[in-house]
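Budget justification aside, the reviewers requested a transparent look at the raw inputs and outputs of the sequence design task funded under Objective 1. We therefore reproduce one unedited record. The lines immediately below are the structure tokens for a 277-residue chain.
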């Protein structure tokens, strides 16, 4: 352990494509590393974007995958899948993850697999923080990630489709996990992303502030920030996409980027276990 903060695992999730899950997962993991922690990034999305985004695209077709880790007939262990980068360790995605998800669907304890085979053996021993990037769908892999990490960061575009995606996640995933599974998954923060400064963004941030989720908005994402420049949320910056294509976190690609302090604030939220924690 690098310091006295509690170890913590967190999934980055929303059942909507292209809101910034992978971008937030890679960059929050890198910021946690920059703060002196040992960090593991787990790519649970069959698309493999997080894997590509940290320069490990070659591992997408590796011999072993997570399915082998919990296959009783295989002696592959989670540590066999871990790859190192200069920023963090990574469990890469795999082209067969869809098949792994189908197996989880038909197995009675699929929802506990990430907890039993990834988080419990590694968190607090090998790693201070585990950050899981999840697919843009509600299904056994994302359920298992939420159960395993018990914390979630939710990137949102300030558009109705994102907000309704979040409402669906609460109603179809978080509430059933709590009411039927007895598992409380804490929404550490809502992360408004790719903001450019239009009226819709203003209206939706205000709506969140008038809702029971108001206290999940980090300080950089609140409507007071409309008074200053560059405005609230993670702003739209071409450097995010360019860093991704170079296989690097934002800080490695553009160490002066004005969004780094905001990503740092998110890392701080993960360290503390909530916006107001
Ligand atoms: N703040 C930002 N500014 C500019 N571009 C961004 C920003 N955040 C993300 N992007 C870009 O938007 C696209 C979608 O982001 P990302 O892949 O992180 O979303 P995602 O939610 O993981 O998508 P998927 O649902 O497909 O997994 C990418 O091209 C990414 O580089
Ligand atoms: Mg993604």
């Amino acid at each position: 352990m690098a310091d006295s903060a509690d170890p913590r695992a967190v999934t980055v999730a929303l059942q909507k494509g292209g809101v910034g899950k992978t971008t937030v997962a890679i960059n929050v993991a890198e910021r946690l590393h920059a703060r002196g922690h040992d960090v593991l990034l787990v790519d649970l999305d069959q698309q493999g974007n997080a894997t590509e985004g940290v320069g490990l695209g070659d591992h997408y077709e590796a011999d072993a995958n997570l399915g082998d880790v919990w296959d009783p007939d295989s002696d592959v262990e989670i540590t066999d899948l871990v790859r190192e980068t200069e920023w963090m360790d990574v469990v890469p995605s795999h082209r067969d993850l869809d098949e792994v998800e189908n197996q989880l669907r038909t197995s009675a304890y699929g929802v506990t697999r990430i907890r039993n085979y990834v988080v419990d053996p590694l968190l607090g021993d090998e790693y201070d923080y585990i950050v899981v990037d999840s697919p843009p769908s509600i299904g056994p892999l994302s359920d298992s990630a939420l159960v395993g990490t018990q914390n979630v960061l939710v990137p949102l575009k300030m558009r109705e489709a994102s907000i309704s995606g979040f409402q669906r996640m609460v109603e179809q995933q978080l509430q059933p996990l709590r009411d039927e599974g007895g598992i409380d998954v804490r929404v550490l923060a809502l992360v408004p992303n790719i903001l450019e400064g239009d009226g819709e963004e203003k209206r939706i941030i205000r709506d969140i502030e008038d809702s029971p989720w108001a206290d999940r908005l980090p300080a950089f994402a609140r409507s007071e920030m409309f008074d200053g420049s560059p405005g609230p949320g993670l702003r739209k910056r071409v450097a995010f996409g360019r860093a991704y294509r170079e296989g690097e976190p934002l800080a490695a690609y553009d160490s002066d980027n004005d969004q780094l302090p905001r990503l740092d604030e998110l890392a701080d939220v993960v360290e503390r276990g909530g916006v107001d924690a």
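The chain has one domain: 8-272. The domain at 8-272 is CATH 3.40.50.300 (Rossmann fold). Computational costs for records of this kind are itemized in the attached budget.
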